[in-house]
Design a protein that fits this description.
The structure is a homodimer. The first copy, chain A, is α/β, with parallel strands linked by helices and about 400 residues long. Chain A has two domains: about 150 residues, Aspartate Aminotransferase, domain 1; about 230 residues, Type I PLP-dependent aspartate aminotransferase-like (Major domain) (Aspartate Aminotransferase, domain 2). Chain A is about 45% helix and about 15% strand. Chain A contains 15 helices and 14 strands. In chain A, strand 4 and strand 5 form a beta hairpin. In chain A, helix 5 packs across helix 12 and helix 6 packs parallel to helix 7. The model of chain A has no long low-confidence stretch (mean pLDDT about 95).
């Protein structure tokens, strides 16, 4: 006897499929392949020596605590450190407003779980972060996409869509935005639009989920106050993470917001993983106390800025004039838009034959468009590899351009 | 304007409430209070020095890997170590059969997510692990409880219930059992019943979820083959964890089973937390390679056996004859059953005034009974505290006994 596993899956699990692109990229184990696909930070940015010393100290002096269970909400000392850092930019909160999550992805999962019943609407940017879309899909959320321009989500279209959804009797739970150096588009929402999105959220009585992993990785221009800091009614939930400013391997992030929502999220997290690794929380907490976080971020910004410049220069040099791309002021990513007749998912196989990889843009689009776009990451590869990788992709595109 | 957060919660989130008992126990910060409530391992059992040395080495030699993102399934080297250890007890599997989870609680959450749609049935023991019940509730699962005796779940009643549920047209997805030194009841399922539960699962076409955190903590008697090792059709999913044999602070556990189910769980985990901490996985993997795991477990067994003995002796000495309790051959817990007119949840407040805490048994019972039971943990408190704690609870109970 063998089992038909499919008949056992929950309705929502049945709908979750392995990403075909992920499966292709998984096969890229060949070290000859230059990958502009992944969103991994450059390991050169990890303050390894400090982390090593801190970890040593934690395991010498606080081992009984570090290796034990702890509270679901996260260590108060870590939450306080984060709150102090956030307050410097006007993001205020008390202990009750913040919960530690096991990476921002768990934050997105818990946001999906606390807000979305099957059929509920989540508004997202076009394009938006693939794994956020998946987290929302996994609770049966229906995603409505709003186009962006260089100033972020288009507020005129957002309002039109909210009116349409209201007239159709649909329940919109939240608007999800990556306000700074968006993944994948690279755009940053302007101050005017941040004020506008708050006005719209209040008018239509919806939450805003502000996902903000890249805020500190600004290469130029003035920082813009977060949507969270600009709003006063408790209808913004802000997600932040150590993955891009310290390292992802600790799996540490936070959710900041309305005390009641955070309390409910704590109840859900309790059933999800009991608590986040205490050892890792103590490492991050002691690292924050060391007072080197800002300094480390500053030097990382220089590394990523140079890489961004190398990529933008290479794009100018090697991509044909029929292709356009975003010019991010920070973060990890560029999105290139090819002529509509080029399907970047199809082209990926050829790219891998040419020893280069990127992420086809389609899956980032909740409206299933964007088949002619690609995400190019400048975070992980070396400057030489960025140049060579863009060159290889450029050559491939040139062969496909119709005259 | 203020927000009515309740109208934003998903249907399932609305139903998840903070445990009143947890809230009471949270207040117990007074170091005078002897807690027999929590299920935390004794920190004396953590191999701190080995973990410290290994961590140092990992952060010296593999920092770029340790602090980076990694695969959702978990590090192959850790999965191989676990598989080798499991194979010693006849629990066979290949890499495709195992996925690392962020603690067993995440395993339970993912089991809930992969199997349960609202209204689907999960069969559980009466009583059963509270946080497993919560994980299943959080996906809308309906729980049907089967009574236990000293040989574990009652197979005659299980079969009756499955017939009843089938006749009612209900979809049963799985039977959840903690086969060794059950939490909270302490009972171990006999070999005959392990064979029988497999026969029943095959007959009614349901999965078995075998949660096995305490298997290695056996104080006496012969080990019994796991249900997983006895079954051959791939309809047993087995959960194991490092929390009770190494330490909980790393948040490392695993799910072993049917390749298709594990593959689907990987897709879900991807949207849940991307990956489990690589640093922690490398620590556990290198600890396994050190070859000291079995030795460490053996010395831990001696620690817990002594504590169990102290608790059983104290129960004999201080609890009135109207109370009965389980005599576990391993694990962390004893369940005491008081006369039906004593509500242990009510009594908890008085206990805390007497500087002692336990967990009222009610919430462990999916049928909402067991109000007259309590879970007593001998894992964390010192031997002196166990004796004194049992004495205080015994005195309290004696005052409530009706003559």
């Amino acid at each position: 006897m063998s089992i038909n596993t499919k008949e056992f899956y929950s309705v929502l699990a049945s709908k979750m499929e392995a990403s075909a692109i992920r499966e292709i990229l998984k096969l890229v184990q060949n070290p000859e392949v230059i990958s502009l696909a992944g969103g991994m930070p450059d390991p050169k940015t990890f303050p390894v020596e400090d982390i090593r010393k801190i970890t040593q100290k934690v395991l010498s002096k606080k081992s009984a605590q570090a290796l034990q269970y702890s509270s679901t909400e996260g260590l108060p000392e870590l939450r306080k450190c984060i709150l102090e850092n956030l307050a410097k930019d006007g993001n205020d909160g008390e202990l009750e407003n913040i919960i530690i999550s096991s990476g921002s992805q768990q934050g997105l999962d818990l946001v999906g779980k606390v807000f979305l019943s099957p059929g509920d609407i989540a508004i997202v940017e076009l394009p938006s972060y693939l794994a956020a879309l998946n987290a929302f899909y996994s609770y049966g959320g229906e995603l409505v996409g709003i186009p962006m321009d260089e100033d972020g989500m288009r507020m005129d279209i957002l309002e039109e869509e909210l009116i349409r959804l209201k007239n159709e009797g649909k329940k919109v739970k939240f608007i999800y935005t990556i306000s700074n150096f968006q993944n994948p588009a690279g755009a940053t929402m302007s101050l005017a639009r941040r004020k506008k999105i708050i006005e719209i959220a209040h008018k239509f009585n919806v939450f805003i989920i502000e996902d903000n992993p890249y805020e500190k990785l600004r290469f130029e221009g003035e920082p813009i106050p977060s949507i969270y800091s600009l709003e006063e009614n408790g209808s913004v939930i802000s997600l932040g993470t150590f993955s891009k400013i310290l390292c992802p391997g600790l799996r540490l992030a936070w959710i900041l917001g309305n005390e009641e929502i955070i309390g409910k999220i704590a109840i859900l997290k309790q059933a999800t993983d009991l608590c986040t690794s205490v050892l890792n929380q103590l490492i991050a907490s002691d690292y924050c106390k060391l007072g080197k976080l800002e300094e480390n971020i500053e030097s990382n910004v220089q590394i990523y800025k140079r890489k961004r410049d190398v990529m933008l220069n290479a794009l100018e040099k090697y991509f044909p004039k029929e292709v356009s791309w975003t010019k991010p002021q920070g973060g990890f990513f560029v999105v290139a838009t090819l002529p509509e007749y080029i399907d970047t998912k199809e082209m990926l196989k050829e790219a891998i034959e040419e020893n280069v990889a990127y992420v086809p843009g389609g899956p980032f689009f909740a409206d299933r468009k964007g088949q002619n776009t690609m995400r190019l990451s400048f975070c992980f590869p070396s400057e030489e590899d960025i140049e060579e990788g863009v060159k290889r992709i450029g050559n491939l595109i040139k062969k496909k351009i119709r005259n």
